């Protein structure tokens, strides 16, 4: 039986991974997060350890206790606006702590799968970014995630970096929302919503992250992989697809430009990721955006 350690297990993506993987009898899964288990579920059998990965000694004890074959790091300070003004904390969590994990993965000869982001790119491209392109982040969150990728590459041999983008699905109560849920909530409540029409992404259904990560666990190569949805569209277009699925009037959706939004934190305009490498090497087959919206809202 393979032992899996999921770090960031209270988070949106981490909890979905913990839940999906622990339902499989072939795996013995341990979740780890900064706070205690926020969503205890007796059905899938998993262990849970509260730990702060910013402390190197804690990470050492964690690996000794779990003896993992695979470590999946979904932990992060993942809100760009927060990272922009809490720079020291962001660098510590998103990069320096990742170095602790990578060195310990090397010591224990286990495979490290680390989640990263499309925000490592500057967004100046007009075609989908491949894994070969050089990061050039435009905000501090993207910078720390890029540095986290470097910590992985420089400190362990057996790794995969999985870049995801706009992860959406059904959150647990208390988890941060996502674009699909947010738009659905507003439209159902009859409230207007402003969305940018000139930022393009390849949104990722959260269940497809599990598909990609499982394939990466078994894959013999180390490297960077783009694990996103198959379609690149603007944030406004995502909102229109949600309205369409719910059969609600799109008139409450107000498309605006990035400059009109005047956000304090810069964001890449076009950060669509190419998934051709994952399709070719991992047989990764994500669902369409419409299917993902249906799965997210049909509960
Ligand atoms: N969500 C997206 O749209 C998106 C897009 C692109 C990339 N990503 C990347 O995908 C990954 C998952 O994102 P997410 O949005 O699912 O994350 P999330 O919901 O923000 O969850 C991150 C989790 O990390 C845990 N954590 C933070 N600091 C920690 C520490 N020092 N020690 C242990 N655990 C710690 C937190 O635990 P507690 O709750 O226990 O405090 C939190 O639940 C991240 O790497 C993110 O950068 C996400």
Descriptive account of the structure:
The chain is an alpha/beta fold and 299 residues long. It has a domain at 2-168 and 203-229: NAD(P)-binding Rossmann-like Domain (Rossmann fold, 3-Layer(aba) Sandwich), CATH 3.40.50.720. The protein is 40% helix and 18% strand. It contains 11 helices and 13 strands. It has helices at 12-22, 56-66, 80-85, 87-107, 140-155, 179-188, 206-218, 235-246, 258-261, 276-282, 289-297; strands spanning 2-7, 27-33, 46-50, 70-73, 111-117, 159-164, 167-168, 193-196, 200-201, 204-205, 223-226, 233-234, 253-256. The protein has a 7-stranded parallel sheet, with helices on both faces. A two-stranded parallel ribbon has the order 7-10. Helix 1 (12-22) crosses helix 7 (206-218), helix 2 packs parallel to helix 4 (87-107) and helix 4 (87-107) packs parallel to helix 5. The longest helix is centred in the first third of the chain and has 21 residues, at 87-107. The radius of gyration is 19 Å and the shape is globular. The relative contact order is 0.14. The chain binds NADP nicotinamide-adenine-dinucleotide phosphate. NADP nicotinamide-adenine-dinucleotide phosphate binds at residues 8, 10-14, 33-35, 52-54, 74-76, 78, 93, 97, 115, 117, 145, 164-167, 175-176.
């Amino acid at each position: 039986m393979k032992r899996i350690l999921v770090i960031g297990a209270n988070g949106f993506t981490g909890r979905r991974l913990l839940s999906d993987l622990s339902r499989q009898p072939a795996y013995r899964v341990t979740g780890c997060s900064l706070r205690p288990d926020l969503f205890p579920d007796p059905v899938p059998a998993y262990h849970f350890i509260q730990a702060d990965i910013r402390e190197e000694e804690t990470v050492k004890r964690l690996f000794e206790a779990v003896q993992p074959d695979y470590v999946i790091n979904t932990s992060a300070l993942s809100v760009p606006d927060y990272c922009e003004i809490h720079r020291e904390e962001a660098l510590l969590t998103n990069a320096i702590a990742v170095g602790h994990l990578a060195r310990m993965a090397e010591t224990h000869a286990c495979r490290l799968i680390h989640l990263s982001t499309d925000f490592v790119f500057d967004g100046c491209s007009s075609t989908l970014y491949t894994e070969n392109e050089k990061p050039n982040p435009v905000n501090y969150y993207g910078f720390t995630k890029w540095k986290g990728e470097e910590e992985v590459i420089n400190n362990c041999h057996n790794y995969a970096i999985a870049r995801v983008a706009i992860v959406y699905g059904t959150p647990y109560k208390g988890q941060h929302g996502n674009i699909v849920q947010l738009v659905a909530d507003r439209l159902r409540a009859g409230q207007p919503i402003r969305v940018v029409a000139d930022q393009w992404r390849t949104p990722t259904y959260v269940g497809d992250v599990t598909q990609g990560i499982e394939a990466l666990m078994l894959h013999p190569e180390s490297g960077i992989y783009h694990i996103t949805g198959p379609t690149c569209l603007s944030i406004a277009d995502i909102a229109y697809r949600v309205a369409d699925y719910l059969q609600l009037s799109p008139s409450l959706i107000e498309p605006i430009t990035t400059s009109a939004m005047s956000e304090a934190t810069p964001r890449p305009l076009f950060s669509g990721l190419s998934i051709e490498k994952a399709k070719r090497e991992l047989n990764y087959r994500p669902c369409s955006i419409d299917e993902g919206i249906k799965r997210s809202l049909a509960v």
